[in-house]
């Protein structure tokens, strides 16, 4: 009885880590319309990333956190985003299918992690879509002197808990339904609409940048205490100006630059929409890497230019965080330019909303197509070849949330889900590069795992353990083969999981007790140094393993250092979230796990394909071929 119980538990555990094949399934190619070129993907990435953040974020960070050095904050944030972006680029070249981080996790880490990734991506996109819809409604309402909100408040005022809005925003709901109709018409139509509004947004941003450099004053990057006194009519009381710092280009010091970079990082969230369009790109192996790199570069130039112009046009302590650019133009005598800024804000928000709804429907479709969500969500329209049911279902949910909820308390929750997805993609690239390319059957795999070195076979029985230990230690730092083997792949898997564990502990240490670590406290400093040494040692072991030599249109450079840095940055940012955010995160995932264990684990295509002998964590990523599974 106990043996049968153990076998059942092992079988159940194997189901949780069962992985998909990297190759597209039979019949999956050509179902969705491949019509997006590189320009379309760049437009999607830029439009989805440059929303209202470029008009608001720069003012908020410059005013209270970084001052003029906000330009360095965006540089650091862009470099951090590039770490994840390069990993997305390599996976996009490997796996030209819908699903983004969800699919990448499925083929590398396993089914349960993939479901959690996809489930949290859906939550992130829902929050983004609903909050952007309400922001667009609010921005448009302010242009017509708040007539819409006044009518809604007088007619539909809600006296409800604090997490609901004060009034239902039917205008935001209508906007979501309108863009849902655009997506239903087909990917060509939605790409055309996105390109049009992204182009207008970039023209407005170019106008802002050029105007700022023309009307700006370099002295605003060199402010002193004398300037603060002049700003208060010669008074020594400068407290009403808010936090000032010590003056100069970086008034809040190096710490302000780092804190500002952590905030500015969220301004680059959104480029992963390019990866969700993999199944609709004409040449995904080339256009996805190019699209991600170019879109991140364009977004960095926009953020860098706008923040530089803003801090040149007026002193940072005079910036109004809620409307920095209109007030800056008013300060330099160009008040009508505020209307141009308003047009750019509306176009940027519209692109972000369209991008969030596009990504949300594609991830939902990919999960339903794999059987982890209800299969009806994977139905494609015969003419437009779009996931109609997934678009309608996810769009309706986002519309209802835009109608009723406020989202000021859910932004961190959205960022947590996105950072989790980024981390899993980076982890996937790290382990995938070191896996063997060839497909092997189950019988060959069994023989391979039990293969013993000839010297060990010839040795006496009592010396076998010593030989095995010696051979294992030798494989860690001096592998015999120059190409990946099953054993070297398993070593990388184990080391990568250990790395994530150690990086998480280090991030917790730096997030909860930073002053003790850097002030020289013996216990905390010694712990941090020990963790760094262990991380460096494990990174060297991974670096010594043979990499897969197969050619790819794009490969992440500096493996494994770059992925390790990226995982650390993402995990450290996640550790900045509050306990309330983590509680919300737990509730959402508990709902998802109920769906997974109640439906997904029994209806997944991998379950139907091989219900009795699912793939284990020791298998390679290419083992799920029809011939191997039928053998």
From TrEMBL:
Q: Name one GO cellular component term.
A: plasma membrane
Where is this chain's protein located in or outside the cell? Answer: Cell membrane
- The record places domain Cationic amino acid transporter C-terminal at 554-604
**Cell membrane found in the keyword field:** yes
Taxonomically, the superkingdom here is Eukaryota
Catalytic activity entry = L-ornithine(in) = L-ornithine(out); L-lysine(in) = L-lysine(out); L-arginine(in) = L-arginine(out)
**Carries keyword Secreted?**
no
Locate the region Disordered: 612-631
Alphabetical keyword list: Amino-acid transport, Cell membrane, Glycoprotein, Membrane, Transmembrane, Transmembrane helix, Transport
What processes does the entry annotate via GO biological process terms?
amino acid transport
InterPro entries linked: AA/rel_permease1, Cat_AA_permease, CAT_C
State one molecular function term (GO). amino acid transmembrane transporter activity
Q: Which Pfam families match?
A: AA_permease_2 (PF13520), AA_permease_C (PF13906)
Q: Where are the transmembrane segments?
A: 41-62, 68-89, 101-128, 170-187, 196-214, 249-269, 290-317, 337-365, 386-405, 411-432, 491-512, 524-544, 556-575, 581-599
Q: Quote the biased-composition stretches of kind Basic and acidic residues, using this chain's numbering.
A: 621-631
Question: How does the protein associate with the membrane?
Answer: Multi-pass membrane protein
The primary location reported for this protein is membrane
Q: Which NCBIfam families match?
A: 2A0303
Protein family: Belongs to the amino acid-polyamine-organocation (APC) superfamily. Cationic amino acid transporter (CAT) (TC 2.A.3.3) family.
Name of the protein this chain belongs to: Cationic amino acid transporter C-terminal domain-containing protein
Q: What's the source species for this entry?
A: Sus scrofa
Gene field? LOC100523609
